[in-house]
Design brief:
By secondary structure, this protein is mainly α. It folds into two domains: 2-110, no CATH class; 121-190, Arc Repressor Mutant, subunit A (Orthogonal Bundle). Helices cover 67% and strands 0% of the residues. α3 (60-74) packs antiparallel against α5, α6 crosses α9 and α7 packs across α9. It starts with a helix and ends with a helix. Residues 1-5 and 8-31 have low confidence and may be disordered. Residues 141-194 form the HTH luxR-type domain.
Length: 194
């Protein structure tokens, strides 16, 4: 409830000539030394922090409200005016509040599931890779010998040259040579060589 009250103060303090909204609701009164300028200065400082942290702009007001809510719980309102200008426990609590809100917002953004309305680019990327492999596989059937096809297939599967040599019963040098020739043939066939 207190955050709602401060939200009213924040929106009223946004313009110079605008009258300030009353900070009275649900038996909450503003202390005499809490000025609209202090609220405006804290809001501006928070906005700079949200921008520097690259938080989405549509979340800035909510984040600022969370900072004010934490300040209301932990810092006497009479200290808010001097909080930005003097070192002390209140200033450290202000920085802790900003940091906690920033981190909570960043974590919340990171772990949000995709809604059905948003496309999943992972499928598109997997489709592209699959299409490329199909193209290479067709080219391999057209221009490579069965032995070269097998070497390329094993190499693409993550096998090392010595492992392929053991599998095919030959030397690593021979496998390396065949692999090089096969890749050159595929590059030429697919027009990758310049």
């Amino acid at each position: 409830m207190v955050a709602v009250v401060l939200g009213t103060a924040l929106t009223a303090g946004g313009s110079k000539g605008a009258p300030t909204a009353p900070l009275k609701q649900a038996n909450v009164t503003a202390p005499q030394d809490l000025t609209p300028e202090a609220v405006k200065d804290i809001t501006k400082y928070c906005q700079v922090c949200w921008r520097n942290a690259r938080l989405p702009m549509d979340r800035w007001d909510d984040c600022t409200q969370q900072v004010f809510a934490r300040l209301l719980e932990r810092v006497p309102q009479g200290q808010w005016t001097a909080m930005l200008n003097t070192e002390g426990d209140e200033r450290r609590e202000f920085f802790r509040a900003i940091d906690a809100v920033k981190k909570r917002t960043q974590r919340a953004r990171r772990y949000v599931d995709l809604s059905p309305d948003h496309a999943d680019d992972r499928n598109r990327a997997a489709d592209h890779v699959r299409d490329q492999w199909e193209t290479v596989d067709r080219a391999a059937r057209d221009v490579l010998s069965p032995r070269q096809q097998r070497i390329v297939e094993l190499a693409a599967g993550g096998w090392a040259v010595p492992e392929i040599a053991v599998e095919l019963g030959t030397t690593p040098e021979r496998v390396s040579d065949e692999k090089y020739k096969a890749i050159r043939k595929l590059r030429t066939h697919l027009g990758v060589d310049a």
